[in-house]
Structures are given as C-alpha cells and as structure tokens.
Fold this sequence. Notes:
Elements: E1 9-12, E2 17-21, E3 30-31, E4 37-40, H1 42-46, E5 53-55, E6 64-65, E7 70-75, E8 77-82, E9 88-90, E10 94-99, H2 103-119, H3 131-136, E11 138-141, H4 144-187, E12 193-196, H5 197-200, E13 201-204, E14 219-223, E15 239-242, H6 247-251, E16 258-261, E17 263-264, E18 273-275, E19 284-285, E20 289-294, H7 300-307, H8 310-319, E21 321-323, E22 326-328, H9 331-336, E23 338-341, H10 344-386, H11 401-413, H12 417-420
Parallel strand pairs: 4-9, 14-19
Antiparallel strand pairs: 1-11, 2-10, 3-5, 4-5, 6-9, 7-8, 7-10, 12-23, 13-20, 14-15, 16-18, 16-20, 17-22, 21-22
Amino acid sequence: MSELPKGWAETTLGTLGNYWNGRGFKKSEWREAGQGRQIIRIQDLTGSRDSPNFFYGEADDHHIARNGDVLVSWAATLGVFEWRGPEAVINQHIFKLDSFINRRFHRYLVEHVIDDLRQRSHGTGMVHVTRGVFDETQVLLPPLVEQERIVVVIEEQFSRLDSAEASLRRAQRNVERMRRAVLGGVGNPANAEWTDVGSVAEVQGGIQKQPKRRPVRNKFPFLRVANVGRGRLNLGEVHEVELFENEINRFRLQDGDLLVVEGNGSPDQIGRCSLWHDEIKDCVHQNHLIRVRPGPKLVPGFLNYYWNAPQTSSILSSVASSTSGLYTLSTAKIRSIPVPLIPIDEQLKIVDRVDQQLSLLDSLSTAIDHSLTRSSRLRRSILEKAFTGKLVPQDPNDEPASALLERIKAERKIETKGSRKGKKLLTTK
C-alpha cells in the first residue's frame, strides 16, 4: 500500500467486525403471508421480488436484522445494503455486519472494496465470496473521529447524487411513457381495414437445437431468444448451428423479416419482436423465435412498430397460453393476430414520422444513461478519496487508528466461548 495518511493504519476487513451468516430456511418454516418476521432474501435487497416470505419460528439473535443494520450479499449478487424496515430474519447467502468501528463508515468501506471482491469471487453459475477472501481483504483505517468526519462528507455528497439520480430516473420513466405513446399511435391507425397476419405475411417457426446440430462442417449463424429485444437486436453473442441439405434456403432470414419471441415467463414480454435488416449473412433462427415475413401489402417497418405498440402487446398476451407460468405463442396464433391495412404510402409516412420521434427519444435516453454513469463514477471517486485519506483533512490530535486496533484485539481476546456459542460466521466453502 502507498504511504499512510497521518494516524491511519493498515488492517483487514476480518479484523474490523464479525460477519454473521444467515440461515437456510426449510419450506415448512415459512409462509408467503401472515404473521412472523419477514425473511430477507437477496431479491428483497435488490428490489427484484414483489412479495416477501415470512418465518414464524424462533430465530437466533445473529440471524435477526433490525432497522439500520448493514447486510452484505455474498453470493450471486454481491452488494452492500442497509436494512430499512421492521425486525426480520436473514436468509443464507447474506450476512449481517457486526462492526467494531463506526458502523456507517464500515458500510461504505465494504462498498468501496466490493468491486475488488467481485473480481476475486469464485464459481461460474453462482459466484460467491469465501470467508477467507473477505477477511483477508486489506484496507486502510483512519482514527475513529476521522471516520465520523468522513461519513458526514460522504453522506452529504451522496445525498446530492441521490437527488440528481432520482430526477434522472423520473426523466427515464417519462421517456418510456412518451415512447409508448408514439407506438400507441401506430397500434390503431384511422380508416384502416383489418385482417389477420396470416393473410398478409408468411409465418414460420425456426430450428430446434439438438446434439446432431452441433456446428462442425456446415455451420451457420443462429439467433436465439437472447438476441431479440423489444424493437432492438442484441448481436453481441451469436451462436452457430449445423444445417443439412437445403435447410439454409428454407430458414435463411431476409431483410425485413420480423422476429417474434415465442415464449416468456413475463406476460408483458410475450411476443416481443425486432426487425431483421440482414445484419449477418446467411443467418437462421431457433424454434423459440417465429419469423413473420411481410407480403406486398405491408411495409416491414410499419409492421414492426405496430407489433411493439402497447395495444398489440395486450392482444399477444391475451392469446398466449400459460402453462406453469410460461406464456407461449404458436405460429397458428401469430397468424390469427389482427393487423391494420392502410395504403403503402401512408404506412411509409407513419414509419418516417415514428423513426424521427423515436430517434429523438433515443437521444434523450442515451443522455440520461450517460448522466447516470457519470454519477456512478462520481460515487466511486468519492469513496476512493474517502478511504485513501483525501476526502477530509487529518487532525494530529485524533487518537491514532493503531490504538483502536489494539482495543479491538483486546476485546476479541476476552470474548468467552460461551458468548460465541451458537454463532456461525460466513462459511468458508
């Protein structure tokens, strides 16, 4: 490490606190609603789950999180969180920070090193940080009173960033509302004659990936569901597939083809689509994508915008089957979807107008994303200054951090076995 700021000391995360791992709950111990304490899972911390589960049994104190406790998710999603809510119990893959220093300083310190921990994580499908890696992570520790000064400045600056980011996210939501409004105008054009997709377009399924189609000799680019977003193609990773005889002539995509996602676990994602502009030569698609090839009565761009309109999304959701939570569309159902027919020149005018409007909204969205990225970088810069002694000045009258570390060492020595009995730290596995 570089030269230490005045009064600071080198130490490790493991020295600065205990990290109590959550418990694994049996299904018989929890229920989806009712009395008891909420079970805190990683999804509850990241906001990716709507309905919590509840534990109705007795819990050890180190499994209980109270308002203001610092929680760290150490598997799958690595992150630092502050619990805000009533008393709850912690699930496995989360640990509670029991700090020997300023708790809020400790929280920001872990947040500062989380990227380094992520790079040193283990596993492929479900990455995790071992106890050894966490404990051995080296950090710089300022005097206790300087910790307090650092926290004040961090939270002042983060508060301003929070306010700015909240405004940017509101702007993001407004842009999305405007985007839906623009597409909504395509979903119900005036004076249109209505027919079904099968009458004005060719609808065809794709290729099922099987062991015999492992790309060896006659391999071709192969689009998957992951490559098709709503109105956007994601071609960063395109797989290959083996084709036989004249299959390329049957399945080759053409400029103007609409690629429709056949199934998805979310109703609002069913039937999402994107327009193919022959970005990759001799490309084919999997069976979970349905190809819609417009005939002479439809402009491909018009069909694409109509398909992504909110009204059409509702129609697609209503006709999709649902089995075990999976919504699916068949080629027959795609053929039955109503589509408006208006003169070709009117379709072209609509496409031109929508192109311009969406281009402006895309520019606004990009500017917002850039601003959020800059804010994130500024947060990291603030933390970097905070934990290298550059955010607040040092005071020679502060008790040095070495004295604090000596007290921590002494307190650890006098911990009796009885006081630690029944407590389980983050697993080393």
